[in-house]
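Example 9 (inverse folding). The structure is encoded as follows.
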């Protein structure tokens, strides 16, 4: 989930993100598994909004990003599209 922040300073939030301290399976659970724990960790992370913005800007389709699941991000995109 982490990207080289040396090449893109806008991604500096990833260096202190709480997800960097856990395994990827936590944020990319098996289909049908709970995302509750990942979302709780996201909600305690200072980089949550930057992470969510990154996921939306880069059309991340899988996993929990910024405290939202794939379905929740998709709903958010649709709401934003409808408002435009």
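The amino acid assigned to each position is listed next.
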């Amino acid at each position: 989930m982490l990207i080289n922040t040396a090449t893109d300073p806008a991604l500096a939030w990833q260096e202190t993100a709480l997800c960097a301290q856990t395994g990827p399976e936590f944020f990319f659970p098996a289909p049908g598994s709970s995302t509750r724990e990942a979302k709780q960790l996201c909600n305690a992370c200072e980089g949550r909004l930057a992470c969510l913005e990154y996921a939306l800007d880069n059309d991340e389709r899988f996993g929990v990003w910024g405290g939202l699941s794939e379905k929740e991000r998709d709903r958010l995109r649709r709401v934003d599209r409808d408002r435009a």
